[in-house]
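Entry 14. Ran structure prediction on the chain below.
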Amino acid sequence: MASQGRLTRRQWWFAALGAAPVSSDYPLRVGLDRDALRVSAPKIRFLNGPPLRQLRNGATVTFASQLTLSAGTPANVVSRQVDRFVISFDIWEETFAATRLGPPLRSASRLSEAGAEAWCLDFSLAVPPSTDERNPLWLRLDLRGVDGRDGSGVLAEPGLSITRLIEWFSRPAGAQQPRWSAQAGPLTLAGLR
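Output, structure tokens:
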């Protein structure tokens, strides 16, 4: 983030190269609901810039998310949830609609901009039964805007190919592709109870 109106070196380089910066300064909000982690990213604002312009011009916009849970060390991924969602804008009512395409299919309509962002970034992630309550856990959320050409092989098919989506997230994002990440941890299940 810029301090006192100044750009950091990283922000300056991204601006100079015309690249979309990756934002990782966002915290995740984590709670425990029985055997599932409730995860949200209330600070991420992804409906702005080019995606918002596309929506206001009548197009739909697709985003893909990946939420990972690591135990013991941040590199030891024990659970992963990948998803994609499509957002549209009703130009007459000036409200948003969102559809989560991963099973189960869910949708919401007549949402405000902030409401659509919050709805899309609200996750429930099952905790593996073997997880020790005192074992340190880390969560990471990656969110990317999907360019029709970039995600066509992964996201154009009617079903969600989790393997292809994980491969897609492992590749570097394109220079103009909007992306965000948020993290939480270390935390423990005992500390969340």
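The helical segments are 9-17, 49-56, 113-120, 152-155, 162-170, 189-192. Will compare against last week's run tomorrow.
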